[in-house]
Protein: EF-hand domain-containing protein
Amino acid sequence: MKRVVNLVVFAILFLGVLIACETEEFVQDTSVSKIITPDGKSSCPSSHPFEACGACWTDAAQAQSGGCNDTGGGNNGGGDNNSGGDQNNNCPSSHPYSACGQCWTDAAQAQAGGCNDTGGGNNGGGNNGGGNNGGGTPCGNYNYNPDNTACVTTVANGSGCMNSDGLFVSSKGVVSNPCNTKEAVLDIERNLGINIDDQFIAQSGYQGNVPSINPTMTKSDFLIYMKELLKGININGKTGDQFAIEFTNLLDTNNDGILTRNEASQAKGSDPRQVLNLEPIFTINGGLATDDVLAYVGLYLGDGALDKYAGDLPQVVQDNMASFTRTWQPGVNAASKRYDSNK
Structure:
């Protein structure tokens, strides 16, 4: 008789576990995961726009019926939540920690990447650590809000303006992200194994006025950079490597093996088109494209902000550049499809 009772108790417990498992499966089936958008951000799909408990639902009622009771702060927009500047919802699950306008795996990685404003970082899941000033995320002494495109002052050359956060807004309405810019420069240094001027790196996130510095770079390191940019190019039998070697030699006006910003400007200025030997490659935008390739290693500094540069490059050069740096695009992070994290 005792054995029968034990079997009955065991059967009841087993049935309870089975029901619990089925209930758990039901909860998972009613919600869906975020998707990664083309700009590298994570967002709930339009079919399940309500975000709560780290998942996407059709609405608050469905979330509650699925066992999620934390629906008070749900985002019913399916994307960026602009009502309170809660930018953490843009970070993918692989890089859930939001700080300095970018996404990281955790605070330690953010600090290692040069982001020291991690006290108000957001570690995913909807808990905003604060400090985003009514919209945006902290970036050094700035508040980066990509939606703050209203002009306060105009930049001297008319290429854009400065917003109320003190950040440059391009003529196309794109807000500069100084933290992302610094990471773009560091990408080049790390991924290509070259040395870029430390003073330039420290000030690469400049906004508005150009810093009064004269960055330097070895000729050999610059050549590595140029060869990567012109990879795959062949014009009438002349390869990208040959163009790169010739261009590098033209910039070294005193043939001392060291390139400087002032020296590069002088060499470029000797050509009315300011393209030197790269005319066959930069036929359309001329000197603007030359500025772009020089800007990311400190050999050219223009008004506004560094991350407005590179858009004048031919597509093949842009694609080469995007293989080893997150480039000029404000807000693009290592989780973006455009950035090759395997390089």
User: Anything to note?
Assistant: The mean pLDDT is 74. Residues 91-170 form one domain.
